[in-house]
C-alpha cells in the first residue's frame, strides 16, 4: 500500500498539503502518481484534518482512519506515522507486506520512479528503497557561521583539493520511501546499510517547507513544462 502523511496545521505555508499548485491541490500530485503507477493495492492518506481528508478522497485516495493527536504534532517523525498506518490496516482490514511512504508535497514525483523503487525492493533483502539525489556542490567545502558571523570550514584540510578529487555525496530527495512492513513496524532507520537509493536528477528534486521553497518549486515546474511540452505524473 501507499501511505501519504498529510497532517493539518502547517504554519510556514498555511494549508500547504491542499494549497493549489498548477491547478491541483498539492497532495493530488502524489495521489495521482501513486494510482497511475499501478504498484499499489491501496492508496491511503494518513491525516488528522477533515478538509485534507475530503480533498484526498475526491482525488481517489482512501482515508480509512483519522490519525490520532499524539501522532499529529510538530515533532512526530515519518517512522511512527507509517508504523501506525501499517498496524491499523493489519489490525482492522488486511495483511500488509510492503508500504511506500509518499510525501504530500512532492509534485515532481514520477510513476516510473515509484516503479523503479518497487522493483528494487520486492525481490531483494533491502529494508527500504528511497528517492535520493546528488549534492550540487562538494560538501567537503561547506562552512559554518559562528555567533559573530565569522566562517569556519567543516573540512579546512580539503580547501585546496580539486573538486574532481572529492568524493561525491548524496541526500534524501524527500519524495518516497518504499519499505517492507516489518521494517516500518520496527521503525528501522531508513538511511542505513539495508537501504538502496532510487537516484533522481537534481532538477526534479525540491523540498517544499517554506514559502521560498514553494516559489522555487513553481519556477522549476514551469520550466519543466516549457521544455518538455507538458509535465504530469
Give the class from helix and strand content and strand pairing: alpha/beta
Rg, please? 19 Å
Q: N- to C-terminal separation?
A: 18 Å
Order of helices and strands: EEEHEHHEHEEEEHEH
Structural description of this entry:
The chain has 233 residues and is an alpha/beta fold. It is 30% helix and 20% strand. The chain contains six helices and ten strands; from the N terminus they run βββαβααβαββββαβα. It has helices at residues 26-37, 50-58, 78-92, 111-122, 181-185, 211-228, and strands spanning 2-5, 20-21, 24-25, 43-46, 98-102, 128-134, 143-145, 151-153, 170-180, 195-199. The strands form three sheets. Strands 4-1-5-9-6-10 form a six-stranded mixed β-sheet, with helices on both faces. The protein is globular, with a radius of gyration of 19 Å. The two termini are 18 Å apart.
Amino acid at each position: 500500500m501507499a501511505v501519504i502523511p498529510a497532517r493539518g496545521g502547517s504554519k510556514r505555508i498555511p494549508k500547504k498539503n491542499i494549497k493549489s499548485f498548477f491547478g491541483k491541490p498539492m497532495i493530488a500530485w502524489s495521489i495521482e502518481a501513486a494510482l497511475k503507477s499501478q504498484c499499489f493495492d491501496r492508496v491511503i492518506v494518513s491525516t488528522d484534518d477533515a478538509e485534507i481528508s475530503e480533498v484526498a478522497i475526491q482525488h481517489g485516495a482512501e482515508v480509512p482512519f483519522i490519525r490520532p493527536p499524539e501522532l499529529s504534532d510538530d515533532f512526530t517523525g515519518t517512522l511512527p506515522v507509517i508504523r501506525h498506518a501499517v498496524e491499523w490496516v493489519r489490525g482492522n482490514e488486511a495483511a500488509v507486506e510492503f508500504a511506500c511512504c509518499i510525501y504530500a508535497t512532492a509534485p515532481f514525483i514520477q510513476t516510473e520512479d515509484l516503479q523503479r523503487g518497487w522493483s528494487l525492493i520486492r525481490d531483494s533483502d533491502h529494508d527500504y528503497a528511497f528517492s535520493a539525489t546528488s549534492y550540487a556542490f562538494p560538501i567537503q567545502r561547506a562552512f559554518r557561521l559562528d555567533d559573530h558571523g565569522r566562517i569556519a570550514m567543516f573540512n579546512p584540510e580539503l580547501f585546496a583539493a580539486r573538486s574532481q578529487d572529492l568524493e561525491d555525496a548524496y541526500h534524501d530527495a524527500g519524495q518516497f520511501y518504499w519499505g517492507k512492513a516489518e521494517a516500518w513496524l520496527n521503525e528501522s532507520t531508513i538511511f542505513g546499510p539495508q537501504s538502496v537509493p532510487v537516484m533522481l536528477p537534481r532538477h526534479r528534486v525540491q523540498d517544499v517547507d517554506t514559502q521560498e521553497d514553494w516559489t522555487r518549486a513553481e519556477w522549476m515546474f514551469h520550466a519543466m513544462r516549457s521544455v518538455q511540452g507538458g509535465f504530469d505524473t
